Amino acid sequence: MIKHKSPLLAGILNFLFFGVGYIYLGKRKTFGWIMLFAGVVMTIEYFIGNLSHLSNLANTHTISFTIVAVAVAVDGYLLGKEK
Description:
By secondary structure, the protein is mainly α.
């Protein structure tokens, strides 16, 4: 029995947690794990930047983090719509 995976859920998962949408879909698993690891590292760097009062670095990081989050969310959604 083949279960249909939700493209919307894959997109949301990828937006919230880089790579988890790929893992959920069962596609690009290696890339998904790499993205998840990168997301964790970026989150840690963000908090370290905020704690050390490197506000310019934190602001730049927030912008780039958001761009990547939107990109992987859209990619996860489109990948989920493929048959």
